[in-house]
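User: Please fill in residues for this 461-position structure.
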């Protein structure tokens, strides 16, 4: 099957309809404004509430056209459990080329007619081509350990990454942004958090290179940086709404952090306008959005604590069986064991850990796997003690854990942005919310690929 039609789905995780409208009205997002004025405008409804209102759940719904009640993919890095085909599998089966760049919690079938790079929290689903592994593994480690200054990459990994970028689209614009970022950090001693937008630029360079190389009919391009800024810096954007006020020093650095994220993504939207041709439909999809988080204000805001090295906490707990660890988001991490008995025994030992005589671990065991994280979210004193219940064995808590610097102040909201910019640039605003289940069949319809029976969402026309 040959077609000159193409669809690019820009998956800008958790951007908020209300903030988008506000920043556009203030004249601060010219490319998003153009996108809005040339698109059919929808607001999506994730149709879930906590604990099921999570991006790694909603993006599986977007990509499969199947609700959580059916796909049952609950955790990040569990996309491999999806039993139905995703839209890229269906499009590939129809003989069209695909290019999936960073989409969250993916799975895919072999062979795939094109390229796929999973999200950088993925440890069980790898890219379908070894060609992109130097890029994937380098960025993966940066993303998973961005808060941990004690983790460093090998010179070999760094050189492989640089060689890959040099041959896969590294632009002068990105080189200039990297230099400016490093100078800014050196001069001010601040703004390390802005590195996330440098990763976005690198991701776009790689996307553009492969897009121009293989000319795919369907592509995705996923970014998460602004979602992270919203989670961490909403308190700084609207301090009057929160009981726990940021310090003057924090405000100097973070007051405009969320706007900065939107403006950096606005630049990428402009780059996509330059990239696409007159046969391309651009879709902006956010999956869900955010709102201010006031849940933890009575304890001073939500603080996160993360192991400096995951092996150290397991060793302290007395876990002796073989295992492997991988970080997830914030304070969470996966532990995988060789059998269920080892996983059960490790879970029991970790559950016995206490901080200042308070149980500290939040754990979820599933077969041979344990998802864990520190379940204490209030501010701990510098002399906090980590111990084992009914034992005299103890160490200073901060010898094994460190506090992630920022206090969470944004939380998930089921509304999402869905803008569809067709080649005719027709603008219309649809005021009734639509289900996320409609995204996949609508993409298939745009490419004239039949919708499979398992997709129950309606095509948006």
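Assistant: Residues filled in for all 461 positions:
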């Amino acid at each position: 099957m040959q077609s000159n039609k193409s669809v690019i789905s820009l998956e800008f995780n958790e951007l908020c309809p209300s903030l988008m409208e506000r920043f556009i009205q203030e004249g601060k997002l010219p490319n998003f404004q153009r996108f809005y004025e040339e698109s059919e405008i929808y607001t999506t409804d994730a149709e879930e509430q906590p604990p099921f209102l999570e991006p790694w759940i909603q993006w599986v719904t977007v990509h499969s056209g199947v609700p959580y009640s059916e796909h049952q993919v609950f955790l990040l890095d569990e996309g491999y459990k999806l039993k139905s085909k995703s839209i890229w599998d269906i499009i590939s089966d129809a003989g069209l080329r695909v290019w999936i760049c960073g989409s969250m919690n993916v799975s895919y079938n072999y062979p795939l007619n094109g390229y796929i790079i999973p999200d950088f929290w993925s440890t069980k689903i790898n890219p379908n081509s070894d060609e992109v592994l130097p890029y994937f593994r380098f960025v993966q480690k940066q993303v998973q350990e961005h808060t941990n200054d004690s983790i460093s990459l090998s010179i070999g990994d760094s050189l492989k990454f640089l060689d890959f970028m040099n041959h896969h689209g590294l632009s002068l614009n990105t080189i200039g942004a990297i230099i400016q970022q490093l100078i800014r950090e050196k001069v001010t001693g601040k703004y390390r958090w802005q590195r996330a937008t440098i990763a976005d630029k690198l991701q776009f360079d790689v996307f553009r290179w492969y897009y121009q190389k293989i000319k795919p009919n369907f592509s995705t391009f996923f970014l998460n940086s602004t979602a992270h800024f919203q989670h961490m810096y909403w308190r700084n954007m609207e301090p009057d709404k929160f009981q726990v006020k940021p310090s003057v020093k924090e405000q100097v650095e973070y007051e405009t952090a969320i706007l900065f994220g939107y403006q950096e993504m606005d630049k990428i939207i402009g780059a996509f306008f330059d990239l696409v041709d007159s046969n391309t439909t651009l879709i902006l999809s956010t999956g869900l959005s955010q709102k201010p988080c006031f849940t933890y204000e009575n304890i001073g805001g939500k603080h996160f604590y993360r192991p400096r090295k995951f092996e150290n906490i397991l060793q302290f707990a007395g876990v002796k069986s073989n295992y492997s660890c991988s970080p997830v988001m914030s304070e969470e991490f996966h532990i995988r064991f060789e059998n269920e008995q080892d996983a059960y025994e490790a879970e029991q030992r970790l559950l016995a850990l206490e901080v200042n005589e308070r149980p500290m671990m939040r754990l979820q065991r599933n077969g041979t796997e344990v998802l864990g994280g520190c379940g204490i979210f209030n501010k701990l004193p510098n002399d906090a003690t980590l111990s084992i219940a009914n034992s005299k064995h103890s160490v200073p808590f901060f010898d094994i854990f460190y506090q992630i610097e920022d206090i969470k102040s944004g939380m998930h909201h089921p509304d999402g942005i869905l803008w569809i910019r067709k080649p005719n640039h027709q603008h219309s605003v649809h005021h009734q919310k639509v289900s996320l289940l409609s995204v996949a069949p609508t993409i298939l319809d745009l490419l004239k690929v039949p919708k499979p029976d398992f997709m129950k969402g309606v095509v948006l026309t």
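For context: The mean pLDDT is 94.
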